[in-house]
Amino acid sequence: MTPHLVFSLLTAVDRRGESEESGDDETRRKGINGDVDPNQPTAASKEESPVDMDTITLDPEEEDVDLVHCRIGKIEGLEVLQKAKTLSLRQNLIKTIENLQSLSSLRELDLYDNQIRKLENLSNLRELELLDVSFNVLRKVENLEELTQLKKLFLLHNKIGTISNVDHLSSLEMLELGSNRIRVIENLDGLSSLQSLFLGTNKITKLQNLDSLHNLSVLSIQSNRITKIEGLQNLVNLKELYLSHNGIEVIEGLENNKKLTTLDIAANRVKKIENISHLTDLQEFWMNDNQIDNWSDLDELKNAKSLETVYLERNPLQKDPQYRRKIMLALPSVRQIDATFIRF
Q: Where in the numbering of this chain does the U2A'/phosphoprotein 32 family A C-terminal domain appear (predicted)?
């Protein structure tokens, strides 16, 4: 079971596939379908008048600089922050990335929720390991050639149309491109260190071009236009696969993904649970909102001795008055059925 408790099924299905590290404690759990958190600033708040940086006091000795929601309109006057390792400029009014070249010791740069239209002027930040430019208005990924130490790149909720100009980021471990306008999975061959890839809420029609990602353990491609599970044969280290809210009709193509602990195929068009009896490490199985109507299908899960969570609600099976009891009898290791824990 993941660290957070799940009480609303649809919220849970949407959220579980999204990266947990993008955003702060209040805003990081955006829905994978792009639903904006109520705490997110409204369009009206974006019309605030920017403040003059001269009015903000900066501590030259500070290593973790937090300038969140300060109505900053322009990045300037930060040269004194020579010791800064992390710089957070989230939820401001910034339109241009600029005047950061002197901060060469930066490890983390957070520009989440601004009005930035272009990735630029980052070439001097060669020590940068984390860059978050989520919730901006970027149309493409560019100008990251010098950021070879980058491990985490968050570009959630922009207007990016293609995956490009990231192939050289061989140290990258996490790539978040959810809620954009991407149609094709491509140009990832050089990301040999990538462990987590988030592509939820795009316009992707096919699982492809993933063969080189041998270290990938988490793949989220929820809320796209996928109709077939394929192209995953080389992802032998995959542990979590999120495919909810697509158009999948058959469970297949998982023969080599024997390390899977979480499989989410909720809200698709699947009629039968099949071809997963070899997934003996499975702990969570999400199959709600499909067309499962045969109780014998649960036999496919009997080899998963550590299975703890099963979601099957809003399938024809749920109409059975003995729904929960039959699941418990068929899968005795299960501790949670849908959003409700089993009481002993």
A: 320-338
pLDDT value at position 57? 87
Residue for token digits 């491509």?
186
Q: Whose structure tokens read 């997934």?
A: 279
Tokens standing for residue 87: 């710089």
Q: What b/e string do you get for 75-108 counting C-beta neighbours within 10 Å, with b at 16 or more?
A: beebeebeebbbbbbbbbbbbebeebeebeebbb
**Element containing residue 24 per DSSP (H, E):** none
Contacts of 245 by beta carbon, 8 Å cutoff, 6+ apart = 13, 14, 32, 33, 222, 223, 224, 266, 267, 268
Hey, what amino acid is at 114?
N
Sign of the Cα pseudo-torsion (14, 20, 22, 23, in order): positive
295: three-class secondary structure by DSSP: helix
Q: Cα separation of 96 and 117, whole Å?
A: 7
Task: Give the global pTM.
Answer: 0.87
Which residue carries 């322009």 as its tokens?
74
313, 9 contact by CB (below 8 A): yes
State the CB neighbour count (10 A cutoff) for residue 159: 13
78-137 pLDDT, tens per residue? 999 999 999 999 999 999 999 999 999 999 999 999 999 999 999 999 999 999 999 999
